[in-house]
Amino acid sequence: MAPNQNLKWKTAFFTMAGWALACTASTAWSQAYPTKPITLVVPFAAGGPTDVVARTLGAAMTRTLGQTVVVENKTGAGGTIAAAYTARATPDGYTFLIHHNGMATAPALYRKLNYKPLADFDYVSQVIDVPMTVVGRKDLPAKDFKELMAYAKANGDKINLAHAGLGAVSHLCGVLLRQAMGVSMTTVPYQGTGPAMNALLAGQVDLLCDQTTSTTPYIKAGSIKLYGVTTASRLKTLPDTPTLAEQGLKDFQVVVWHGIYAPKGTPKEAVDKFGAALRTALKDPAVAQRLAELGAIVPPDAKLTPAGLQSWLQQESARYEPVIKAAGQFAD
Ligand code: MLT
Questions:
Q1: Which domain holds residue 158?
Q2: What are phi and psi of 135, to 5 degrees?
Q3: Across the chain, what does the average pLDDT equal?
Q4: pTM for the full model?
Q5: Within this chain, do residues 207 and 151 fall inside the same structural domain, yes or no?
């Protein structure tokens, strides 16, 4: 064999051997994964709606994955601190982020954002859709939405509307509510609607726009007042409560969607396994019942995929950007 020919054969042999070795290593890696606890980053405080969803699903996913899904609350700046943290985490399949509409609104809301929602992550799946409710402290002197409107008109800035920071859905919903009602209220930021709800229960703030996954138990216990739901039609779980649209706020609609993301470059095997565990958790009868009782809606199967989340985030980012820029709401 000519020396050149010999070299070509040797190169081909080593390339194939290297490829086979890589395939075996990758198969072994994916079969073994996960070998240690997985962190699910939550961008808001413990006890709030994102935390409730993450812990409910995380417990069920732990059973499927055979390793603990550890919820880590990384709060602040309307969820952007957690998103930036995840974008920079090692892409090894052991860090994921659950986030909501804030992933789409942040680029328009924050002038300086040190991550790119559409470029810096791998997509795992959409998770759950959650309606919102407008709730007030128990002793607020307005028994229904009509009375709340009159009370808000009479008291304006004296009314404290709690929220979870710029980029939080409670902030978005609160600002839209204020605009739609044509009243001024003072907004009060917290690290999540978990602490905002504690302030409402303690009577330290007057109003809060929050997800049913957080408010439902307090509404059912009668510890807060409920003024309306933010969906197009009434909720099965709160059938006697009119929508805000029914009560005069035409077209008022805010529904919170959630997605799970991984740092860009996470092994596909890890993304697939985490996504599969999520889909199993959503179908677990006990989990499904708990989420349904809290008013949450599981999206159709096509959305519970990486492509389903990616195209939804693209659509939502394009939808929010002009609206937010036109409203001129920025943070530095
Ligand atoms: C939370 O989990 O505290 C909420 O999702 C915050 C928010 O209102 O966006």
A1: 131-229
A2: -125, 155
A3: 92
A4: 0.89
A5: yes
